[in-house]
Every structure is written in C-alpha cells, then in structure tokens.
Amino acid sequence: EAQVTQNPRYLITVTGKKLTVTCSQNMNHEYMSWYRQDPGLGLRQIYYSMNVEVTDKGDVPEGYKVSRKEKRNFPLILESPSPNQTSLYFCASSPTGEDTEAFFGQGTRLTVV
Amino acid sequence: ILNVEQSPQSLHVQEGDSTNFTCSFPSSNFYALHWYRWETAKSPEALFVMTLNGDEKKKGRISATLNTKEGYSYLYIKGSQPEDSATYLCASPITNKLIFGTGTLLAVQP
Fold first, then answer.
1. CB distance B49–A100 less than 8 Å?
2. How would you list the strands of the sheet with A4-7, edge to edge?
3. Among candidates A42, A40, A71, which has minimal Cα distance to A54?
4. A93: left (phi > 0), else alpha (psi -120 to 50), else beta?
5. What pLDDT, in 10s, does the model give residues B59-101?
6. Does an H or E element contain B58, and which?
7. Which residue in A37, A53, B74, B104 is deepest, having the highest Cβ count within 10 Å?
8. How many CB pairs under 8 A join A and B?
9. Measured between CA atoms, how close is A36 to chain B, in angstroms?
10. Cross-strand bridge partners of residue A34
11. How many beta carbons lie within 10 A of that of residue B31, not counting itself?
12. For residue A40, what are the CA distances in angstroms to A53, A63, B89?
C-alpha cells in the first residue's frame, strides 16, 4: 500500500531533550516536506527536500534540522526542543515537486513541557 | 496578494445545500494550485492539483475552477452531505515552498 509513515504518532518530551520524528515513504517520490499545524495558522512548511541530499528551509525552519540521505526517508530533528515547538507535525511527499499532489503522513502530536 | 488566503473561515450548511469557498493566491509567477480535504483526526488528502488558467476539475459532487490571471480558485460542493464535513485547504507554491491557506471549515448538518 502506498503510504507515508510517521513515527511516533504522539510524543511528550521535556525542554532540551533531543528528539527525532521519522518519516518514510514507499512511493519513490522525489519531493518531501515537513509541516507544522497550529490553531489559526494553517499548515506551515518547516523544511523541504527536492531529492537526496538536497534540502532547503521552508517558512518556519528555526529550531529544526532535517536530512535526506536516502530517497525514502526524511527525518525531522529537534536538537533542543522548546515549548513553542508543541504542535501537530505532518510529513508529506509528492512525485516530483509542488505541481503534484502531496501525500501526507498520519501526523505526530508533539508536546514539549 | 503575497499569501494564500481562504474565505470564509467557516461555513455551516444543511444537508442538500450546495456551497462554495474561495482561495486567493499570488497571480504573478503562478505555478500550481492545490485543494485538500482534511477530516478531523485524519491527514489532509488531495482533491485537485490545477495548473492551467480556466481549468475546471471534478470529483463526484466536488468541483473546482481556476483563474490564474486574477489569482483565485473556487471549490464547489453540490448537494452537501454530512460526510463532506471537513476543513478544505488550498495551497500554492511560492518560491519552491508550498504555502497553505488557513482553510475553510465546513459543517454539514443532517
């Protein structure tokens, strides 16, 4: 089944404790991205990747890192999480870029206390 | 317009009503316009990706039109059903980033 898989689905952590949210897609898509969803603000892009080893900042990249060492995986790293990173996070992939539909993962609800 | 904007913010209709929402986006350097449907506790799912001015796409009772010259798209739902209740998002690529509007929350009452 074609899908984008994120883990974990829910996470409560403490300020400053490094964490990684994994994202994997099995559709051989080139373009992958991370979004955060906050009430009243819509989906905001954190980072995106147009292919292996090619990543770039979205609109809200501060406090996040990503890597794209393999085509299928695009982990989101929070080196030192802070409470303002409490949010709902979505990973998405699309075949070639922003002109093709995005397939979203199930979401990760992160709480930083 | 330098951003992607949607209106109305929310809409409450009765079952059987037809409804429509608006998405406004920057018309300069237009590349594509996406529509997604997002049900509570689920992930957004693509409805349409539109690239040509004047394009009209349809999926069942849902259709969308696109005007790239003036920078807007309409999403129409004919004969709304309770299962159409969701947030409808539009998005447009701006300098390689996919920018989403804040969505229109549709509630269809039986």
1. yes
2. A4-7, A19-25, A76-78, A65-66
3. A71
4. beta
5. 999 999 999 999 999 999 999 999 999 999 999 988 778 899 9
6. strand B56-59
7. B104
8. 56
9. 11
10. A47, A91
11. 17
12. 33, 21, 13
- Nearest Cβ partner of B97 from A40, A58, A104? A58
**Dihedral class, residue A50 (left if φ above 0, else alpha if ψ from -120 to 50, else beta):** alpha
Task: Compute φ and ψ for A17, nearest 5 degrees.
Answer: -90, 115
B97 CB neighbours in chain A (<8 A) are 45, 48, 58-59, 98
Sign of CA dihedral A46, A30, B36, B51: positive
Note the pLDDT tens digit of each residue in A60-97: 999 999 999 999 999 999 999 999 999 999 999 999 87
How many C-beta atoms lie closer than 10 Å to residue B78's C-beta? Answer: 14
Of B10, B54, B17, the closest CA to residue B33 belongs to: B54
For B43, the token pair is 């992930």
Beta partners for residue A57, in sequence order: A47
Cα–Cα distance measured from residue A60 to residue A62, given in angstroms and rounded to the nearest whole number: 6
Beta strands in chain A (DSSP E): 4-7, 10-13, 19-25, 31-38, 42-51, 54-57, 65-66, 76-78, 87-94, 103-104, 108-112
Residues of A in contact with B44 (CB under 8 A): 43, 90, 102, 104
Between the CA of residue A66 and those of A40, A89, B7, what are the distances in Å? 25, 14, 33
